[in-house]
Design goal:
single chain
């Protein structure tokens, strides 16, 4: 499944790349230019009256390269050369066009910040990064952020994404938090890794998510790994581990099933996540 997951990350977002090997060999020509020409230089300017298309293109390139990273308006403004007020509009345009999704930040008590100056940005289609900067391999430094982008990209197709955040405080971070709209309390916490070493060093690697769970009265959390499934108990908190590729597939299948039934995909976490053994594909 991880081999197919890599193919999905690099090519799976574009049907023509899946079908035609020549397109896969020339992603920058067939895909990147297509996106830039049709979406950034024509569609968005005509819809929103963008006058400086090259400026929008520069911003999108910076965002694509940094998918899965925390950014701030100040940092983005400096790296892209776009003024902050214009930057806010461009981010809204790119999100409305379903090219990116932003996760806002909460603190270790799952409380929102009054001024949302920092956020994480994700491509809704991870293959765009591969088209712009080249395909990623399983050992590449960017692979962790690409795996995280792929999982968040599946969430974008659910209504859970509206209640999704990430947590960051002085000495800690948790990749994905779900907050209940009514109670405004955290109901799920998930850490996303492209690694199995986190299991070998679970006490140190999972310290932040355990601290968050204990502080927010969560008795369990999820850990997405490279290949390992299992159940662990750490400081009274149950950790359910599952390979990130399988977790992304779980959510995709859940979305398809609920579309067939005319339902919204809740709960996000299917029963199989709570099992140490993987279901048959």
């Amino acid at each position: 499944l991880n081999r197919d997951f890599l193919d999905y990350l690099n090519f799976g977002g574009f049907p023509e790349a899946v079908i035609d090997e020549q397109v896969r060999k020339n992603m920058d020509r067939y895909i990147a230019n297509d996106i830039i020409d049709k979406v950034l230089l024509r569609d968005l300017p005509s819809l929103y009256g963008v006058s400086d298309t090259q400026e929008l293109n520069r911003l999108f390139t910076v965002l694509a390269y940094n998918t899965g990273n925390e950014v701030s308006l100040d940092e983005l403004s400096k790296s892209s050369g776009v003024a902050k007020n214009t930057l806010k509009k461009y981010l809204e345009y790119l999100e409305a066009a379903f090219l990116i999704h932003r996760l806002n930040r909460v603190d270790q008590n799952a409380k929102r910040f009054r001024r949302a100056t920092h956020f994480k940005v994700y491509l809704t289609n991870p293959s765009i990064r591969a088209a712009l900067f080249g395909a990623v391999g399983p050992e590449d430094a960017a692979m962790g952020r690409m795996a995280e982008t792929a999982f968040i990209g599946q969430l974008v197709h659910t209504n859970i994404v509206e209640d999704s955040y990430y947590a960051r405080w002085d000495k800690g971070e948790v990749d994905l938090i779900e907050i209940d709209k009514q109670t405004q309390r955290a109901v799920h916490a998930t850490e996303i890794k492209w690694s199995d070493s986190v299991i070998k060093n679970i006490n140190s690697e999972c310290g932040n998510i355990i601290k968050f769970c204990r502080g927010n009265r969560l008795d369990s959390c999820f850990l997405l790994t490279r290949t390992v499934s299992g159940k662990f108990d750490l400081s009274g908190v149950k950790i359910f581990a599952r390979p990130v590729a399988l977790a992304a597939l779980d959510v995709a299948m859940l979305v398809l099933d609920t579309i067939d039934l005319g339902l919204h995909p809740r709960p996000l976490f299917p029963p199989s996540w709570y099992s140490a053994s993987d279901p048959a594909p």
